[in-house]
Every structure is written in C-alpha cells, then in structure tokens.
Design a protein that fits this description.
(6S)-NADPHX binds at residues 126, 179-185, 261. Keywords: ATP-binding, Cytoplasm, Lyase, NAD, NADP, Nucleotide-binding, Phosphoprotein. The protein has 369 residues and is of the alpha/beta class. It has a single domain (11-359), classed as 3-Layer(aba) Sandwich (UDP-N-acetylmuramoyl-L-alanine:D-glutamate ligase). It has 15 helices and nine strands. It has helices at residues 11-21, 48-60, 74-80, 104-107, 109-112, 131-146, 156-163, 180-189, 197-201, 206-223, 259-278, 296-304, 312-338, 344-348, 351-358, and strands spanning 36-40, 64-70, 85-90, 120-123, 151-153, 174-176, 228-231, 236-239, 244-247. A nine-stranded mixed β-sheet has the order 3-2-1-4-5-6-7-8-9, sandwiched between helices. It starts with 10 loop residues before the first helix and ends in an 11-residue tail after the last helix.
Length: 369
C-alpha cells in the first residue's frame, strides 16, 4: 500500500476513483473521443524524449498521439514509429531568417491553430534551449491557457516557467513534473525556501523527510497560485497547494535518462480522459456535484464519497497521482526484467500492463468481441 500524506484514504480507494475517470471501451465511441494528445518538443539533439512521451500516451490508450517538433527532428521521430503523427512545425533559430528579430506569436500560429483539436498538451520533452523555440512555446502556453487546455510541463518546458512564472501562475489546469534539481530552480525563482538534499538525507525519520518534502511542494504550488506539482524522487510528492498525496509505488533501481517521459505521456492521456469524464462522454452512474472542492476537507470528502461526480480539482490531483503510480510501476516491471541494463524504451511496453495491474478496466468496458 502507498502511504498517503494529508489524505487519509487508502490507495485502493484512490485507484478506484481513478477508474471512474477512465472511459469504458464502448462501440459508440469514434476516433479521437478517447484522447487527442500532443507532445511539443523534439529538436536536432533530442529526438528520443518526445517519442517516449508520445508512445506512453498512446500505449496508455489515447486515440491520437501527436508530436509537434523542430523540422530536423521530424524525420527521425517519424522513423521510430508509424503510429505517431509527427508535425515539423516547431520553429527554431535554424528555421527563421533573423533569429534576433521575430514575431513569436506569428511563428506560433501553426501550433496554435491545432489547439482546438486537442484535449491535452505535454510541453518540454526534448525541447532544447533554442531562444526562438522557447519564445514560441511561451506564446503557445499563453494561448493554451486562454483556451483552458490542460498541459504538462517538464524538462526545458520548466525552464520557461522558471524564467517567467507568470505564464502559469494561477492556472489550475497545469501539472509540473520537476526532478530535484528542477524543483530547486523553481523554488529559487519564486523565493521559496526548501531543504537541500543533504539536509533531507540527515533526517532521522523517513516520515519527517516526507513531511519536509511535502511542505516544500505545497509551498511552491501555492507560490504558483495552485498549479499541481509532481516532485519526482524516491517517492513522488504530488500537491496542488491545498492537498498532497505521496506516490510510493515501488519503482526500479536504475535511473536511466528518459524515464520521466513515460510520466509526461501518461499524464497527457489521463488529462484527456479527465476531460471526457467532465464532458460526460459516457454515463458514469454518478450524481452531479454542484460544489467544487475548495480545500483539503472537500477533496477528502470527494475521495471517500461514492456515487457523486468528482470536481475538476479532485480529478486533476487523481490524474497526477495515477500518472505517477503507473510510471513507477513501469519502472519496477522493466527493472525486474532488465536490471542494470534498463533503458527508457523498456518502460514503454510496460505502460498498459501497469495500467491493468493498478487501475484496471472500468465497469462496462468491452475488451473482447
């Protein structure tokens, strides 16, 4: 059982709640209804990250998985899998005449034109630090926020936020996935005091260490106006500044590069399914809940109550927790098979088995004809 911080609800109940958000497999659905997710990232130097993220999204079960990447990265990403839709529409300094004088909003136009067709964005895998690219992506973030499209920020997507926190401050449809170093940079940019890893390692009690990490995650979330943060580590701390969960599903012992991309892709699909849940794409059998969860007690009540629809605040926290748990289970399964040789690609084929093991198909799904 995973330990839960601040919410006295068992992991079994939490996974049951997550299952309520998963669309059942029904004959009436058509292409695209169960998830249209786009990964924004991929440059000349980094082509694996957007692929791993987009494939995790696809393997978890979204219908349409896109990669919006820099022109030079597109043929490489396309060669990895024909299942992904790859669009070479992410500008860079190499693709504009004068990198020092650009209209970032205009350059972002082709990507912005796609937003209305998408349920969720993953921004950052393999993005790189090209100045033109980062300016364009900042414009995409602004427009996604205007259109209330949920998005996940990771890697160099987090760098954009570190440089300009106002881009996402107060936007509740956002999930950040920083590692220890990235978390520290964000905290410093926002004036949040956090304990160093060395200080945490000297704590005599694991509970005390977790409490310190949770408090820091909550503080950073509040400083950003309540965005949801997954602080990755030996256990993942998930907080929206009001309520925090600890995802401590056992992971593998190999820390190869690229494992975090499975997390972002899984989160993309969970956010797409969450949208379908709130749009009442299917009859969940739950009664409408007119009151949104505003505090810790409200969220806990929704997690413990059966028969009522969950509010967006609760489902976003659950989506983050589920994505974290699935990724950790993927890592555990892959490490059992590969051991020291484990690579990020080994996690990809574990996404669906991990989903079935932890969450399972919802009631009413037709998985066999």
């Amino acid at each position: 059982m995973e330990s839960i911080h601040h919410v006295s609800t068992s992991s079994k109940i939490l996974f049951g709640k997550v299952r309520r958000m998963v669309p059942p497999m029904l004959e009436k659905f058509h292409k695209g209804q169960l998830g249209r997710v786009a990964v924004i990232g991929g440059c000349a130097d980094y082509t694996g990250a957007p692929y791993f993220s987009a494939m995790a999204s696809a393997k978890l079960g979204c219908d349409m998985s896109h990669v919006l990447c820099e022109r030079s990265a597109a043929p490489v990403v396309k060669s990895y899998s024909p299942n992904l839709m790859v669009h070479p529409i992410l500008p860079s300094s190499d693709s504009v005449k004068d990198p020092k004088s650009i209209d970032a909003s205009e350059l972002a136009g082709p990507i912005i034109a796609m937003l209305s067709r998408l349920h969720a964005l993953v921004i950052g895998p393999g993005l790189g630090r090209d100045g033109v690219t980062l300016q364009v992506v900042a414009e995409v973030i602004k427009e996604a926020r205007k259109q209330s499209i949920p998005f996940v920020l990771d890697a160099d997507g987090l760098l954009i936020v570190t440089q300009d926190p106002e881009l996402i401050k107060g936007y509740k449809e956002c999930i950040l996935t920083p590692n220890v170093v990235e978390f520290g940079r964000l905290a410093k940019a926002l004036g949040v005091q956090v304990s160093s890893q060395a200080e945490l390692d000297t704590k005599t009690s694991e509970d005390e260490k977790i409490s310190k990490e949770s408090d820091a995650c909550e503080q950073l979330s509040r400083a950003l106006g309540g965005v949801t943060i997954i602080q990755k580590g030996p256990h993942d701390v998930i907080s929206n500044g009001v309520t925090s969960l600890i995802s401590s599903v056992q992971g593998g012992l190999k820390r190869s590069g690229g494992q975090g991309d499975t997390l972002t892709g899984s989160l993309g699909t969970m956010l797409a399914w969450r949208a379908a849940y709130h749009n009442k794409l299917w009859d969940s059998g739950e009664k409408d809940n007119d009151q949104d969860a505003q505090n810790k007690e409200d969220v806990q009540s929704e997690l413990e109550t059966e028969g009522k629809r969950m509010s967006p605040a609760t489902t976003l926290l659950l989506a983050a927790w589920a994505g974290s748990s699935i990724t950790r289970e993927c890592s555990r399964r892959a490490f059992e098979k590969k051991g020291r040789s484990l690579q990020a690609s080994d996690l990809t084929e574990e996404v669906h088995p991990s989903f079935l093991s932890l969450i399972g198909e919802p009631e009413g799904s037709k998985t066999h004809l």
